[in-house]
Design brief:
The structure is a single chain. It contains five helices and six strands. It has 141 residues and is α+β, with helices and mostly antiparallel strands. The longest helix is centred in the middle third of the chain and has 13 residues, at 55-67.
Length: 141
Protein backbone atom coordinates (compact mmCIF):
# COMPACT_ATOMS: atom_id res chain seq x y z
CA UNK A 1 0.00 0.00 0.00
CA UNK A 2 1.21 3.48 -0.93
CA UNK A 3 2.66 5.47 2.00
CA UNK A 4 0.30 8.37 1.29
CA UNK A 5 -2.70 6.01 1.40
CA UNK A 6 -1.45 4.77 4.79
CA UNK A 7 -1.18 8.42 5.91
CA UNK A 8 -4.78 8.95 4.78
CA UNK A 9 -5.99 5.88 6.63
CA UNK A 10 -4.15 7.09 9.73
CA UNK A 11 -5.84 10.49 9.39
CA UNK A 12 -9.27 8.83 9.15
CA UNK A 13 -8.54 6.73 12.24
CA UNK A 14 -7.30 9.76 14.19
CA UNK A 15 -10.47 11.66 13.27
CA UNK A 16 -12.65 8.71 14.32
CA UNK A 17 -13.87 8.11 10.77
CA UNK A 18 -14.48 4.76 9.14
CA UNK A 19 -11.77 3.13 7.06
CA UNK A 20 -13.67 1.86 4.05
CA UNK A 21 -12.58 -0.06 1.00
CA UNK A 22 -14.03 2.73 -1.16
CA UNK A 23 -12.02 5.50 0.54
CA UNK A 24 -8.83 3.47 0.35
CA UNK A 25 -9.39 2.65 -3.34
CA UNK A 26 -10.09 6.31 -4.17
CA UNK A 27 -7.02 7.51 -2.26
CA UNK A 28 -4.87 4.90 -4.01
CA UNK A 29 -6.16 5.97 -7.43
CA UNK A 30 -5.69 9.65 -6.55
CA UNK A 31 -2.06 9.15 -5.49
CA UNK A 32 -1.44 7.24 -8.72
CA UNK A 33 -2.40 10.27 -10.81
CA UNK A 34 0.03 12.88 -12.01
CA UNK A 35 -0.60 16.59 -12.02
CA UNK A 36 -4.02 18.01 -11.28
CA UNK A 37 -7.16 15.90 -11.31
CA UNK A 38 -10.80 16.96 -11.14
CA UNK A 39 -13.48 15.05 -9.28
CA UNK A 40 -14.98 14.07 -12.64
CA UNK A 41 -11.66 12.72 -13.94
CA UNK A 42 -11.01 10.69 -10.81
CA UNK A 43 -14.59 9.39 -10.88
CA UNK A 44 -14.07 8.16 -14.48
CA UNK A 45 -10.84 6.42 -13.40
CA UNK A 46 -12.62 4.82 -10.44
CA UNK A 47 -15.64 3.80 -12.51
CA UNK A 48 -13.49 1.53 -14.71
CA UNK A 49 -12.31 -0.63 -11.79
CA UNK A 50 -14.98 0.06 -9.16
CA UNK A 51 -18.29 0.92 -10.86
CA UNK A 52 -20.08 0.59 -7.52
CA UNK A 53 -18.28 3.71 -6.18
CA UNK A 54 -20.42 6.77 -6.77
CA UNK A 55 -19.47 10.29 -7.74
CA UNK A 56 -20.38 11.70 -4.32
CA UNK A 57 -18.06 9.22 -2.60
CA UNK A 58 -15.19 10.35 -4.82
CA UNK A 59 -16.07 13.99 -4.13
CA UNK A 60 -16.23 13.52 -0.35
CA UNK A 61 -12.99 11.50 -0.30
CA UNK A 62 -11.13 14.24 -2.19
CA UNK A 63 -12.44 16.74 0.37
CA UNK A 64 -11.15 14.48 3.17
CA UNK A 65 -7.75 14.18 1.50
CA UNK A 66 -7.61 17.96 1.32
CA UNK A 67 -8.77 18.45 4.90
CA UNK A 68 -6.18 15.90 6.03
CA UNK A 69 -3.36 17.86 4.42
CA UNK A 70 -2.63 15.25 1.76
CA UNK A 71 -4.12 17.11 -1.20
CA UNK A 72 -4.52 20.70 -2.25
CA UNK A 73 -7.72 22.03 -3.75
CA UNK A 74 -6.99 24.36 -6.65
CA UNK A 75 -9.74 26.63 -7.93
CA UNK A 76 -8.62 27.69 -11.37
CA UNK A 77 -10.13 30.49 -13.40
CA UNK A 78 -12.01 28.10 -15.69
CA UNK A 79 -14.33 27.28 -12.79
CA UNK A 80 -13.13 23.72 -12.28
CA UNK A 81 -11.73 22.56 -8.98
CA UNK A 82 -8.71 20.32 -9.32
CA UNK A 83 -6.73 18.44 -6.71
CA UNK A 84 -3.05 17.72 -6.50
CA UNK A 85 -1.22 15.62 -3.97
CA UNK A 86 1.22 17.43 -1.78
CA UNK A 87 3.49 14.58 -0.70
CA UNK A 88 6.93 16.12 -0.40
CA UNK A 89 6.46 18.57 -3.24
CA UNK A 90 8.05 21.98 -2.96
CA UNK A 91 6.05 25.13 -3.55
CA UNK A 92 5.32 25.74 -7.20
CA UNK A 93 3.14 27.99 -9.33
CA UNK A 94 0.94 27.33 -12.35
CA UNK A 95 0.42 28.41 -15.95
CA UNK A 96 -2.91 27.32 -17.45
CA UNK A 97 -4.17 27.34 -21.03
CA UNK A 98 -7.53 29.10 -21.31
CA UNK A 99 -8.49 26.94 -24.28
CA UNK A 100 -7.50 23.33 -23.58
CA UNK A 101 -6.96 23.58 -19.81
CA UNK A 102 -3.36 22.32 -19.92
CA UNK A 103 -1.61 23.10 -16.61
CA UNK A 104 2.15 23.57 -16.33
CA UNK A 105 3.84 23.75 -12.94
CA UNK A 106 6.90 25.93 -12.55
CA UNK A 107 9.32 27.18 -9.92
CA UNK A 108 11.23 30.44 -10.11
CA UNK A 109 13.59 31.60 -7.37
CA UNK A 110 13.57 35.20 -8.61
CA UNK A 111 9.79 35.41 -8.30
CA UNK A 112 9.89 33.90 -4.81
CA UNK A 113 12.58 36.37 -3.70
CA UNK A 114 10.66 39.30 -5.17
CA UNK A 115 7.54 38.24 -3.26
CA UNK A 116 9.55 38.14 -0.02
CA UNK A 117 10.94 41.61 -0.74
CA UNK A 118 7.45 42.99 -1.39
CA UNK A 119 6.16 41.47 1.86
CA UNK A 120 9.03 43.05 3.82
CA UNK A 121 8.52 46.39 2.08
CA UNK A 122 4.87 46.39 3.18
CA UNK A 123 5.57 44.91 6.63
CA UNK A 124 3.67 41.68 5.92
CA UNK A 125 4.36 38.18 7.15
CA UNK A 126 3.32 35.84 4.34
CA UNK A 127 1.45 32.73 5.43
CA UNK A 128 0.75 31.30 1.99
CA UNK A 129 0.40 32.35 -1.62
CA UNK A 130 -0.33 31.07 -5.08
CA UNK A 131 0.50 32.36 -8.51
CA UNK A 132 -1.61 31.40 -11.49
CA UNK A 133 -0.87 32.67 -14.97
CA UNK A 134 -3.47 32.26 -17.72
CA UNK A 135 -2.88 32.32 -21.44
CA UNK A 136 -2.68 30.02 -24.45
CA UNK A 137 -0.33 27.08 -24.90
CA UNK A 138 1.62 26.65 -28.17
CA UNK A 139 -1.00 24.21 -29.58
CA UNK A 140 -3.93 26.58 -28.90
CA UNK A 141 -2.37 29.83 -30.09
Amino acid sequence: MNKRVKDFNQYLTTMGMNLTHQRTAIADAFFSTKGHVSTEELYRIMNKKHPQIGYSTVYRTLKLLSKGGLATERHFKNGHTRYEHIAEKKHHDHIMCLNCGKIVEFENKKIEELQKEIAIEHNFVIHDHKMELYGYCPKCR
